[in-house]
Amino acid sequence: MSEQHEPTPDGATVDPSDVDPAAPGGPQAPVHVDRRRFMNRLFLTTGATAFAAMAGGVGAQAASADSSPSPTATPTAMPTPTGPPTGGGPGGMASAVTESFWGLTTDGRRIDDLYAIHSTGVSTTAVRQATAAFIASLTTAQKSAVLYDIHSLEWQQWSNVDNYTRNGIDIASMTTAQQRLGLAVLTAALSARGLKLTNDIRHLNAVAGKLINATDRFNENLYYVTIMGTPSATEPWGFQFEGHHLVVNYFVLGDQVVMTPSFFGSEPTSGTYNGQTVRVFDTELALGLAMVNSLTPAQQKVAVLSTVKTGSNAVAEAFADNQVQAYTGLQANAMTAAQQTRLLAIIEQFVGNTDTGHAQVKMAEVRAWLSDTHFAWIGATTADAVLYYRIQSPVIWIEFDCETPGPIGISLHEPQSPSRNHIHAVVRTPNGNDYGKELLRQHLLTSPHHTR
Hints:
Elements: H1 35-55, E1 74-77, H2 90-96, E2 109-112, H3 125-136, H4 140-146, E3 147-148, E4 169-170, H5 176-189, H6 192-211, E5 223-228, E6 237-243, E7 246-253, E8 256-258, E9 262-266, E10 270-273, E11 276-279, H7 282-293, H8 297-303, E12 304-306, E13 330-331, H9 337-351, H10 356-368, E14 374-379, E15 387-392, E16 397-402, H11 407-411, E17 423-428, H12 437-446, H13 448-451
Parallel strand pairs: 3-5, 12-14
Antiparallel strand pairs: 1-2, 4-5, 5-6, 6-7, 7-8, 7-9, 9-17, 10-11, 13-14, 14-15, 15-16, 16-17
């Protein structure tokens, strides 16, 4: 692990992904970010501008399409003490360091009755047993670092940036046996495709370290595990797997699973690891382009917010749990059946990183709200386009963004424009069920041992 450094005294000029490409031998030593201290200092000293830059938010970029909530859904306004944030930056980050979680919404009003505790018929035994075995392998000191209460704010304290001080224990600190048991947890929690993606992202992080001669800062083992609650067949629990360009939040209640927020990204997006070529996001790019190019010119006028992409466009990454984003783009009820099938294929590509059974459960939920789903696009639509797309409904949020250079691209003096060599993707569950929080709320209200 690389040496840890304190934030600069003013705490305001620290860019969490900043490097000095001119420094001898590669990038400067990273300034590691202490979570609460950094976020509070940054907000107090620089306000919304710094937060917006850190989150890469651009806000709504076009007029909202006509898309009122389903008549069977009941919107509830955010309570005044924890009012809706003013944007993806400061509001979202403030929610991450307080207990004021509301969830991603279109207007600050959360739609009720979207989620309910029920049996899915899909077993969670494998992931529960794998996690219990991993916990049993830990020393007392490691358990102190890894184990948190189910209500812990640790859930919300994730970040995709590399130089961020994380809790838990990282892969590098585990014994060989613990690494094997930790991998077994991911194997049980994810589909084969999801497991491959997480491994590919980690391996490309190692490629990045070699590219800029900073393998202490970028490698495949700087990924941390924390566990919230105790693995149980009936009580809520979950885990978080977190590091550069890879975050998996995995909540379990009975046989229900919520695997959001999830973050998948990479810089670079291709490379050679142990003699093998590794590439990520080719399918996600191809599916998006196939979708936008299936639209008629009239439909594209609604879906395409801008044909010019000059920067990073994602608005709901780390510290944006309470993001308010109005619907934009083309609503699925204005699509043909074939176009809706293409839209569902994109969603399944992301949802399908979860274990197969629970991915199918989630896709059934997505289909139930298909007519309220929106598809928005920024960028060109040519085969080599640098692009951004967003899919948003009451129950799913997906962003896929070709980003401007991060620490790797900056160190390699790449042009300061978005490219396919740096990609971010985010998956969320809108209207209050990220981290399974709505299911947890219902459990606490209805379980006799909690209500007594």
